[in-house]
């Protein structure tokens, strides 16, 4: 049986990644880049440095996701045909998957956790694509299936044993906002107007919480 060996190079990985993902969750991408590049440049060659070299690509993908990089600039087309952002996540997931066999157990475990996170990101892009397709048709939106899918993603995030608390909390918040908005839409379709207002209010509270966090990031 192959034995993993922990090197001293990744002893401060948890602290570095906590800082890195905290900055991403606050949309401070330049600060996140500084953190990971400084750590990478001072680390010797090995699994940990290889792992760190992938994080700038994750940073680019996350920035593009927040800026709706999967949305076409053309008004008539919501999603880019090549869906380059989703491809970026998939390529990054494949690269990190290779590090799951690393001789450094900390690198291997963290690479696996980030791979799981990237998979959930891709699933959320699929959700937005499906919502656009439903909304652009002339038929009433049947959001029950999408609602179930978002609930599944949220459940997977809540059950994940991730150390990436800040980015995990951000994903939970995003999924909860989606859930409340979809439930509000479903309530309106069923003429349940009071429950719809309650769900809209719940979504509004979470949006305000997210906004305050961004305002206080400095």
UniProtKB/TrEMBL annotation:
Name this protein carries in UniProt: Uncharacterized protein
Protein origin, superkingdom: Eukaryota
Gene3D superfamilies found in the cross-reference section: 1.10.3450.30
Gene Ontology biological process terms from the UniProt entry: cellular response to amino acid starvation; cellular response to glucose starvation; negative regulation of TORC1 signaling; protein localization to lysosome
Pfam families per the UniProt record, alphabetical: C12orf66_like (PF09404)
Source organism (scientific name): Clastoptera arizonana
């Amino acid at each position: 049986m192959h034995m993993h060996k922990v090197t001293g190079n990744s002893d401060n990985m948890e602290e570095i990644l906590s800082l890195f993902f905290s900055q991403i969750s606050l949309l401070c991408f330049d600060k996140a880049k500084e953190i990971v590049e400084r750590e990478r440049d001072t680390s010797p060659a090995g699994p940990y440095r290889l792992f760190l070299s992938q994080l700038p690509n994750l940073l680019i993908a996350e920035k593009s996701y927040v800026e709706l990089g999967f949305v076409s600039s053309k008004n008539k087309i919501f999603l880019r045909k090549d869906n380059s952002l989703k491809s970026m996540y998939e390529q990054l997931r494949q690269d990190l998957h290779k590090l799951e066999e690393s001789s450094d157990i900390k690198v291997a475990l963290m690479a696996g956790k980030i791979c799981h996170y990237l998979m959930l990101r891709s699933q959320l892009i699929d959700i937005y694509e499906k919502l656009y397709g439903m909304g652009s048709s002339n038929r009433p939106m049947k959001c029950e299936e999408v609602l179930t899918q978002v609930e599944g993603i949220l459940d997977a995030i809540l059950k994940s044993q991730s150390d990436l608390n800040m980015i995990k909390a951000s994903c939970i918040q995003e999924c909860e906002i989606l859930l409340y908005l979809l439930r509000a839409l479903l309530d309106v379709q069923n003429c349940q107007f009071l429950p719809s207002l309650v769900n809209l209010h719940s979504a509004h509270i979470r949006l305000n919480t997210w906004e305050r966090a961004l305002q206080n990031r400095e």
